[in-house]
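User: Predict the structure for this protein chain, please.
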Amino acid sequence: MDSRAQRLAALVLELRGDLSQRQFAKKFGVSFSAIQSWGSGTSWPGTQNLTPLAQLKGWSFDELQFYLEGEPLPPRLSVPQLLAEVRSLPFEAAAQVAKVALDTMASKGEAKAC
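Assistant: Here is the predicted structure, written as structure tokens:
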């Protein structure tokens, strides 16, 4: 198994935690055989599955790609740095950021309510 597949297998194992492969597959919305083959390096998940894997880890898709390639993750902005970046954006771009922030907050609020 190449190192990229090994990193994917390690990530899936970490994200599974105490769940069995079958339990994780059900929770993640894929087949047991998909989880099994990702763990053994015999298949590779498509983008539609890599993105949710990244999100489970708290990463962006790009950060996941860095990890899988064995590259250091790019530094994250601190909250004050991020706010400064948003403040420097043109109005329309700042409005898009605000909408995404509100949508994210709403979805996280719904997840906690469940």
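The first helix runs from residue 3 to 16.
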